[in-house]
Specification:
Blueprint (H helix, E strand, L loop, with lengths): L1 E3 H11 L4 E4 L6 H4 L9 E4 L3 H15 L3 E5 L3 H5 L1 H9 L4 E7 L15 H5 L5 E4 L6 H13 L5 E7 H5 L1 E3 L19 H13 L3 E5 L1 H6 L2 H11 L3 E3 L14 E3 L7 H9 L2 E5 L5 H4 L10 E6 L13 E4 L2 H11 L6 H13 L5 E2 L6 H12 L4 E4 L3 H9 L8 E3 L9 H11 L5 E6 H7 L2 H7 L5 E6 L4 H10 L15 H8 L2 E5 L5 H10 L4 E6 L28 E2 L2
Parallel strand pairs: 2-3, 2-4, 4-5, 5-7, 6-7, 9-10, 9-12, 10-11, 12-13, 13-14, 16-17, 16-18, 18-19, 19-21, 20-21
Antiparallel strand pairs: 1-8, 15-22
Helix pairs in contact: 1-7, 3-5, 3-18, 9-14, 11-14, 12-15, 16-17, 16-23
Length: 565
């Protein structure tokens, strides 16, 4: 059938199972928008800023496992997407981004709102396209979804000139993919899998390092089988949180810069590290030349470029985690590591990283603990980057798969607002909490209007300390408290702001108000915001300074009283 390029885009998205698009129109992409009324099965959510569209598509993808879709116009519309695309690329999140471009005849002439979108995004996408003929659209979009959601996931961008949207052509949707240079390895090498099983059987002090790959491969059951069958403690990376239940007896938590001290110490004492879908990020390894020198290492990842990139390994296995672990588990003999598990319990006792000091002050850690209890660990929690992110990672007990969502590798402030919007759209029947810093929240808070307009009932917990908290903490520790450009002396009244947007707003200044405020927000039928006015100079502990080792660990000074979480 003959269709315009804009109609071809919409038809192609429907063939790929797309049900929602986050976007904002402009001149170059307007012909595509004008076709939307013909396709009521495509829900379009009009954001207030294109960065919000990218982060929302990212959040949607993380919790559904399906590529999120974002649209924007040429020039500033496309460049406003860049932060969100880069964040998705760093965290291996599948997205398909469609941008408008100036008409073909105007490309290269510095036309109004012209930008080399494919050139700008080449380093931060898994692949991108510039479409010069409407007949190319179906194939490009079919390939874009395949590339975005296969192998190591990532964002793919399709840039389409305005006149290509308007021009007609024959629509033929391809029924197969033919990409000779793109064939991800899925099954893993049989002999390497046997070598890994042998190392596991010989190990006395093994640990599993579970990363984001477990989540995207949906290898939750296979991970649990391996851990339980061989009685191996599981340590989760920041992005691996919610890949293994936090309340499981074998869960040891998060290691690294702001991870649990006992998790980092367990890595140091282990004789075998089994790294699953993680990339030995510097926030975990610290000084690479001194990282876990006493252990042998198995690394399983679908991206061969990650294996050996940061840390040398003994048994590399390239493949999809669900497939590889299914095969590996067949070679694993039941085992116990009673002494090793007891040693980890001893480390927990000697280094109780999750203590919250007994005080009348309103502490962020206490808020997260109360949030965890009020939701029974079953909410989806979305954060930006900084202190609030670390407290949310430490003190919430995650029981649901995919339920911790954050900008990890990129560390994008402002992710917490639109990211939570995308998560709620992807999981409409779930409770979604955005744990936000007062700094990051203000970067993208315009999307509150989008949520009210579309009745997207995200609950916001602003950890309001009037500082760029993590930057201030570094200035305290490493710059002799020389606080420069980190203090907010005139934050808005967040309650009035929420009310101005049409949301419920609550302010909490005392710890006795915390639980009732959380429950009130959850009972409210719609988006709600709680402004938690917390201690301004509270720090995140434990802390291993950047580039240092476990021997440089800074543990919180012992409080007069502490309560175990």
């Amino acid at each position: 059938m003959n269709l315009t390029g804009g109609q071809m885009v919409c038809e192609s998205l429907i063939r790929e199972g797309v049900d929602v698009i986050f976007g904002l129109p402009g001149g170059a992409i307007l012909p595509l928008y004008q076709t939307l009324p013909e396709y009521p099965q495509l829900r379009h959510i009009l954001v207030r800023h294109e960065q919000g569209a990218a982060h929302a598509a990212d959040g949607y993808a993380r919790v559904t496992g399906r590529p999120g879709v974002a649209w924007a116009t040429s020039g500033p519309g496309a460049t406003n997407l860049v932060t969100g695309i880069a964040s998705a690329q760093m965290d291996s999140v599948p997205m398909v981004v469609i941008t408008g471009q100036v008409s073909r005849a105007a490309i290269g002439s510095d036309a109004f709102q012209e930008t080399d979108t494919t050139g700008i995004t080449l380093p931060i996408t898994k692949h991108n396209y510039l479409i010069m003929d409407p007949a190319e659209i179906p194939q490009a979009i079919h390939e874009a979804f395949h590339i975005a959601n296969s192998g190591r996931p990532g964002p793919v961008l399709v840039d389409i000139p305005k006149d290509v949207f308007q021009e007609k052509g024959v629509f033929e949707y391809p029924n197969k993919i033919d990409l000779p240079g793109y064939k991800p390895t899925l099954g893993g090498h049989a002999s390497q899998i046997k070598k890994a099983a042998k190392l596991i059987s010989e190990s006395q002090r093994p640990v599993i390092l579970a990363g984001h790959g477990i989540i995207f491969s949906e290898a939750y059951d296979e991970l649990k089988e391996l851990a339980e069958k061989a009685q191996i403690p599981v340590i989760t990376t920041l992005l691996g949180i919610s890949s293994f239940p936090d309340d499981h007896l074998l869960c040891v938590g998060m290691p690294g810069m702001h991870g649990m001290a006992y998790a980092s110490l367990a890595i140091e004492e282990a004789d075998l590290l089994i790294a699953l879908g993680m990339r030995f990020d510097d926030r975990i390894t610290g000084k690479r030349s001194a990282f876990a020198l006493g252990s042998r290492k198995i690394h399983i990842d679908i991206d061969p470029s990650e294996i050996g990139k940061n840390i040398p390994v003994d048994v590399p296995i390239v493949g999809d985690l669900k497939s590889v672990l299914t095969k590996l588990n067949k070679h694993i003999e039941p085992a116990t590591h009673v002494g090793w598990l007891q040693r980890i319990e001893d480390l927990k006792s000697k280094h109780p990283s999750m203590n919250i000091r007994d005080t009348d002050k309103l502490l962020p850690q206490y808020i997260i603990q109360q949030l965890s209890e009020a939701t029974d660990g079953n909410a989806y929690v979305v954060t930006g980057v900084g202190q609030h992110q670390m407290w949310a990672a430490q003190h919430y007990v995650y029981k649901e798969p995919r339920s911790f969502v954050t900008s990890g590798g990129s560390g994008a402030m402002g992710y917490e607002v639109p990211g939570a919007m995308g998560v709620q759209v992807g999981k409409p029947d779930k409770v979604v909490w955005s744990v936000a810093g007062d700094g990051g929240f203000q970067m993208t808070m315009a999307e509150l209007a989008t949520m009210v307009e579309n009745n997207i009932p995200v609950k916001f917990a602003i950890i309001n300390n009037n500082y760029l908290g993590m930057v201030r903490q570094w200035q305290e520790f490493f710059y002799q408290k020389n606080y420069v450009a980190t203090s907010y002396t005139h934050n808005p009244d967040f309650v009035k702001l929420a009310e101005a947007f049409g949301m419920l707003g609550i302010r909490v200044t005392d710890k006795t108000q915390v639980r009732s405020a959380i429950e009130k927000a959850m009972d409210y039928d719609g988006p709600a915001l709680i402004d938690f006015v917390v201690e301004e100079e509270e720090n995140v502990f434990p802390m291993i300074p950047a580039g240092q080792t476990i021997h440089d660990l800074i543990e919180e000074p012992a409080p007069e009283k502490a309560m175990r979480q």
